[in-house]
Amino acid sequence: MTAVNRALALFVPLILFAVGGAWYLPTSTEQNQTDDENGEVVLSSLPSLPSWADEDLPDFSGYSDTTERKVAFFSFLYPRIVLANSRILLEREYLESIVTKTELSDADVKWLTDQSERLRVDADTGSEQQFALLRKRLDVIPPSLILAQAANESAWGTSRFATEGNNLFGQWCFSRGCGLVPLSRVDGANHEVAKFSSPYRSVRSYIQNLNRHPTYQLVRDIRLQDRQADKPLSGTELAEGLLGYSERGEDYINEIRSMIRYNNLEFYDREFRALLGNRSPDLFQRLASSDSDDALLPGAEGHAASPFEG
Predict the structure, then answer these.
(1) What is residue 188's predicted lDDT score, i.e. its pLDDT?
(2) Which residue range forms the structural domain that includes residue 202?
């Protein structure tokens, strides 16, 4: 797809705001990216977050060896990606259970309404259109893409916004005091770089951003096409839809893809697919409530523990 065609496939607002490699368009009803840090709607079958999800970002600045720093960064972030994606898969399971019902309960209607509001789905409750749009937006992001963008946007977890605000993806907010004021912010601007209580919350907010913002429609289109073709999701492929994430446009997409290739990050996509196994709800429950982040790391049964092994 050419740059022109890709641009036409995206919703391009007349006024864009850019910072830290992320485009963001505030709306009249959304002034703060962190209003819904969990990015979740209350669901009785969704387990409580494990305590390690609230841990702060480690200090990655002390690594003198580049490979060691990369392994440490990926090993910290990957379990949080598994946690976020597993909880989304549980939500998808609940959505599919509702689709087959002949009559919706009050709880079903409320959940659908809340999810539609969170994911910006404008459709009648219980309609085929609502179910189709929620299926498209309530879905996972491949670990390779998340890892590459987090490394790129946060300087491998060492940027000011990462260390002081647990913000790994350069997301903005627009309420006074909601985040960190960029040192280079021009006079008259009111944006801040959002602060999160933990890196996990940053990951979940980033996934929500790709799942609902009009700028990333192409990301969702590509993902849906892969789902319909029964193809594994690819971070390299979904990166095609990131034209609006940075003012650098095509160069940014190429850089993210290069990072995925150079660091063998599709290793984590394969590990995640293997971890999901038969994709049973019981498995999703265990992954979504794991007592230890180490338990979600690659390396079981003699497999390579990092993309730099084997």
Answers:
(1) 65
(2) 15-298
